[in-house]
Every structure is written in C-alpha cells, then in structure tokens.
Design brief:
globular; D-Maltodextrin-Binding Protein, domain 2; 33% strand; 282 residues; 3 domains; alpha/beta
C-alpha cells in the first residue's frame, strides 16, 4: 500500500482531508484515529503532527506526505515538494518595534525570536548577517515586549496582530508558503502509485478552478464566442434543431465565469449555463 502522512491538526488538517475526500479517498471520522486503511484505493493514511511529517517522509518510512512548505524547509529534512496544493497560503516576514531596524542588514548583534529557527538561520546566513536566534513555540509577538528579542520572524497574513502588538513588518518577505505534497529526495519519480495519487489531487485542483459552461450561439457569431471560451483544448460544438444555431460546451476559469457570461450574452448567446466540476483528468 501507498503510505501517506496527513496533518492531524491545525490549519493544514481540515483542508488536506477535504481535498483527499474529493479525490476519492476515505478519511478518518474521529480525530483520535491515527491510522486509516483505504483498501479499495490501496492507501494507508497516517495522521501526524504537521511539523513531524517531513521527518517521517525523509526517513523512508512513509512514501509521501502533505505539509506546509515552511515546515518542510524549517525541518531541514531530506525531502522535496512535488505538488503545490493551493491552500494554507502564508507569508513569512520579520517584524519589530518602529525605529529598531529596517531589514536584515541592521540585524547584526541582535536577537530574533521565531518558531521557524531553520528558515531564519538559513535566511540570515544567505544575507551574511550574524544574529542570535531564540526558538519559541508560539506567540512570538510578546518576545519583544518581554525583552527576549529585538526582532521576531513569523507568519504574516494581514499584519493586524503585529500592529496590535505595536510592531511593524520590515524588509522583504523571507518566503511564501502553502500546503504541498512531499517525498524523500531520491525516491523514484515514476512510482505508479504516487503518480496516480498526484493525478487525483491535480484533478481536484482543476475541478476547483474551472466550471463547465454551456450555451447556444448563432453560427455567424461562433468564432467570436469560441475566442471567449477556448477551453483547455477546444470546445465541443453540436448543431441544434433550429438551423443556424449550435450548442457549445467548454471549460472556463471559475473566477472569470461571470464576465464571460456577460460577454457571451452581449454577443447574442443564450441559455448560458455553468455547472461545477467534481472530478477530472487532463
């Protein structure tokens, strides 16, 4: 069986299990379940702490895993990402009290508090900065107020929590992160079970990003309509009973669907419908 690590809690967990369910895999119903066997799909899922997943995968005990790019890089594990999953996106940045520093070039001799020691250490080394790092498991915003550090490095979404703590974000982003599928470095890239798993997840990503659009169109307007809805390869076109009309079916990006419907209507298309795509293979 293919052995897969899945986050057991936190922001990654719910979205990861939802995607796996959409991909046709069984998922646990109770949070206490640590292992779930899906015999129909020949997969065994292990629910682990997100921070530990890269370590297990790099050891070869598990074939692949779902974790955050930030957690993968911070672990220093001998593993690599092989598919971006598009959720749990975040930006990792430095912050401090106004007037303390403007970026890493000012950090020499200072102390930086973070939950991501590996990422910060690598970034400082790359920048040629000599600073101390204090590892904290959470709530790093208070480190400056309590005198533990002059700088913090943490995940920043809107920056509201930083501002509420009297801090300002400084410098360029250290990195951007999202949920990713990982495997051990050197693992066979053509493993058929892994490839099937990746195809399923890629199918979910496409299904979430596209809708199927159907509409009726006059033949004389067809070329202009097809230019609006070219599809992934080309649209399906079928003649209608009424002469001079055709039915068109095409996949379009979900975020552009309403605008395309407006443009098609102005062009003279009618019976314009969109339907959700639940699964696909490209």
């Amino acid at each position: 069986m293919l052995r897969i690590a899945v986050p057991n809690k936190g922001a990654l967990s719910g979205s990861a299990m939802a995607m796996l369910h959409e991909a046709g895999y069984q998922q646990r119903k109770e949070s206490k379940e640590l292992v779930l066997v899906d015999p129909e799909n020949e997969v065994e899922f292990f629910y682990l702490r997100p921070r530990d997943i890269a370590i297990y995968v790099s050891s070869g005990k598990l074939d692949i895993g779902i974790t955050g790019r930030d957690l993968l890089l911070d672990s220093g594990a001998d593993a690599e990402e092989i598919l971006q999953l598009g959720f749990a996106r975040s930006t990792f940045r430095y912050a401090t009290k106004p007037g303390t520093a403007t970026g890493p070039q000012d950090f020499d001799g200072m102390t930086i508090a973070t939950s991501y020691e590996g990422i910060v250490a690598a970034h400082l080394t790359e920048a040629g900065v000599k600073a101390s790092i204090v590892h904290l498991d959470g709530a790093v915003e208070t480190a400056i107020e309590l005198g533990v550090a002059q700088i913090i490095a943490d995940v920043v979404e809107t920056g509201t929590s930083m501002r509420n703590a009297g801090l300002e974000v400084i410098g360029d982003p250290i990195m951007t992160s999202e949920a990713v599928v990982i495997r051990r470095n050197g693992a066979p890239a053509d493993d058929p079970k892994v490839q099937q798993f990746l195809r399923r997840l890629q199918g979910v990503l496409v299904a979430r990003s596209y809708v199927m659009m159907d509409y009726d169109c006059r033949v004389e307007h067809l070329e202009r309509a097809v230019a609006l809805t070219p599809g992934l390869e080309s649209p399906t076109i079928s003649p209608l009973h009424h002469e001079g009309w055709v039915a068109v079916r095409s996949m379009v990006a979900a975020k552009e669907a309403q605008r395309i419907m407006d443009d098609l209507y102005e062009l003279g298309a009618r019976a314009i419908l969109t339907t959700a795509i639940h699964a696909c293979r490209l």
